[in-house]
Design brief:
This protein is an alpha/beta fold. It is 31% helix and 17% strand.
């Protein structure tokens, strides 16, 4: 790949793929065919009765909010409790309501459609499962998996990357496949979004019967279930997995998984039965956009470092570390704390660029909304020379 005229990359960024924020798409899929979703309210209703709760809050993902009033009616009809809907946007279990509900006298928060994380919101919270009964055939995805397994087998022969020139290292950075450490295996990693996780071990057997060695990865403390992926955490990846299959809809999780691992990724949609792949061309385009942002901030002097105030997104220590790193390089970093991050809240500050330590997907999915470069902590460190190109792109995660 040619890297000439890299100083103009910032001007060439193509925003088309990002005009609709992918966090909205992640919640959109759950709204499909609602009558085939199982909204498991019985356990919540029994808890409310058992503790004689009189005021609870219901927190619901964006794609389920059209069902919110129906759920509120059911809870109030079956119990003595009154229900307050937490109507602010909600995109994950990191996005918990906290002090404001306590100040209203709420006794329990019911959080719908996400699994519990290793965070404490300061409020008693019950997480309510939502599952979908899809059963797509595997035949449409098998040809894609065969191609991806061949790519993984070829990567087993990769050589040492420690002696790369800077141009070779930058080319590797921009390569969607093959930019991470050499593989030690070619297993198929099987993962899913939360509403389809109950399918994972059944599909593991199906793909094994089709001739694949399948691993259902187990991630860190932020992930509750085997095979689970989040938009901010793909910690179950290991070097025995050579390629992936994602059970779910939309691009939100697949883009993050492909950026984090650099491995081929097939997708099987339980809603439609369609098979597809996260093409290397699209990931390479995203990597070029990230490369352009890094090049754009290399001469920047003043940065605003964004700290998320939500309990599951607050990375104060990381923000302080980045501020010290900027000072070491003779640059200025200003710490800005926000519950919600948006261009209307920060674009007017007289800085050259923003560094995001809140939800990692803000910088990836929404950067075109901002008038100034919006980068991840890793991207800042590359621009400052603290991290090396040849390590490949490092997706920002919250452990």
């Amino acid at each position: 790949m040619s890297l000439t005229n890299t100083s103009t990359f910032w001007l060439k960024i193509e925003p088309d793929a990002f005009r609709q924020p992918l966090q909205h798409e992640a919640m959109r899929v759950i709204s499909m065919d609602l009558d085939r979703h199982d909204f498991q309210l019985n356990e919540l209703i029994e808890r409310i009765k058992g503790h004689d709760h009189r005021l609870i809050a219901l927190q619901i993902p964006e794609g389920l909010k059209m069902q919110a009033l129906e759920m509120m009616d059911e809870i109030e009809d079956e119990t003595s409790a009154k229900v307050i809907l937490a109507a602010d946007p909600c995109y994950g279990a990191c996005d918990l309501v906290h002090d404001k509900m306590k100040s209203m006298g709420v006794e329990l928060v019911a959080h719908m459609g996400h699994s519990q994380m290793n965070i404490d919101s300061g409020m008693p919270t019950q997480f309510i499962d939502v599952t979908y009964d899809g059963d797509p055939a595997i035949d449409p995805v098998l040809p894609i998996l065969a191609q991806h397994r061949a790519i993984a087998q070829a990567r087993l022969t990769e050589g040492d990357i420690s002696e790369l020139s800077e141009e070779e290292a930058k080319n590797r950075f921009l390569d969607a496949v093959g930019r991470v450490a050499p593989l030690k295996g070619t297993k198929l990693g099987l993962v899913a979004s939360i509403q389809h996780l109950h399918l994972v071990f059944d599909y593991k057997e199906r793909f094994e019967a089709a001739g694949y060695v399948v691993e259902v990865p187990v991630g860190g403390a932020r992930l509750t279930f085997p095979g689970q992926v989040l938009g901010c955490n793909y910690s179950g990846d290991d070097d025995q997995i050579g390629h992936y299959l994602f059970l779910g809809s939309g691009d939100f999780h697949p883009i993050g998984l492909a950026l984090h691992t650099g491995k081929p990724l097939a997708m099987l949609d339980p809603y439609t039965g369609d098979a597809s792949e996260m093409g290397s061309e699209r990931i390479e385009r995203i990597l070029r956009q990230r490369f352009g942002l890094i090049m754009a901030i290399q001469e920047s002097q003043n940065f605003a470092i964004l700290i998320g105030e939500k309990p599951g997104q607050m990375r104060r220590s990381l923000a302080l570390k980045l501020k010290r790193t900027l000072e070491k390089h003779g640059k200025k970093g200003y710490l800005l704390a926000l519950e919600h991050v948006g261009p209307e809240l920060i674009d007017f500050y007289p800085v050259d660029a923003f560094v995001n330590t809140a939800c990692p997907r803000i910088a990836i999915d929404d950067f075109v909304k901002y008038a100034k470069p919006l980068v991840t902590p890793f991207e800042l460190e590359v621009a400052l020379g603290e991290k090396k190109w040849e390590t490949g792109y490092q997706f920002d995660e919250i452990p």
